[in-house]
Amino acid sequence: MAKSYEDIFENNKKWVEAKLAVNPEYFHDLAKTQHPDYLYIGCSDSRATAEELMGVGPGEVFVHRNIANVVNTLDMSSTAVIQYAVEHLKVKHIIVCGHYNCGGVKAAMTSQDLGLMNPWLRTIRDVYRLHQEELDSVTEEDKKYDRLVELNVQEQCINVIKMACVQERYILDEYPIVHGWVFDLRTGKIIDLEIDFEKILKDIQKIYNLTDSDWVMSKKNNKNFI
Ligand code: ZN
């Protein structure tokens, strides 16, 4: 771990040397292109690092992180990342990964004006409202906090599945599959919430159906389709 700013460059030098010692062409190959199978949408929290907790290296996962792993329809950043990952990188799996002890989720559970954070965290307060009956029935504050983390992941997965690019690509290729995970900082383990992607997609499309199967298949036959 870096103790000072200068240590970061020393760490980088050692990392480059270690990579080249194993494969002299490592960076030459890395610079060519990327074909990640995974899009990871996680929290910006410094303790929840995508590559490290998944045990993957450069080139293996496309990453988007923001406060409390929110996918908001009006947020150009997360939606552009998802569209690029689905249409151009053709990722096979989209993972929304929350984590216990999430400061963003905790802030959304508190009664206070958080300024610019209000509209961002409102998405999580909306999750609470959608699941108020269940959450209000949990008497222990820590358990309620953990459950809201899980429900937030579930709802953000649904927000990903609402997107036309995800629905279209699934009709064409039967992927990407959307997964919901929670990273447990207390044990280091990833918990798969095992959301039922097929069922959510089917339910979602009763209201948020942004595809026309015939039109999508005609696009498939057009070689210019990306
Ligand atoms: Zn967090």
Biggest pleated-sheet summary: 5 strands, mixed
Radius of gyration: 20 Å
State mean pLDDT (0 to 100 scale).
93
Based on helices, strands and strand pairing, what is the structural class?
alpha/beta
CATH architecture label name: 3-Layer(aba) Sandwich
CATH class: Alpha Beta
**Percent helix among the residues?**
40-55%
Task: Please sum up the structure shown.
The protein is an alpha/beta fold and 226 residues long. The chain has 11 helices and 5 strands.
Question: What would your notes on this structure say?
Answer:
The protein has one domain (34-220): Carbonic anhydrase (Beta-carbonic Anhydrase, Chain A, 3-Layer(aba) Sandwich). It is flat, with a radius of gyration of 20 Å. Strands 2-1-3-4-5 form a five-stranded mixed sheet. The protein has eleven helices and five strands; from the N terminus they run ααβαβαβαααααββαα. By secondary structure, it is of the alpha/beta class. The protein has helices at residues 5-22, 26-30, 50-54, 76-87, 103-108, 117-130, 132-136, 141-161, 164-173, 197-204, 213-220, and strands spanning 38-43, 61-66, 93-99, 177-183, 190-192. The structure holds zinc ion. Zinc ion binds at residues 43, 45, 68, 99, 102-104.
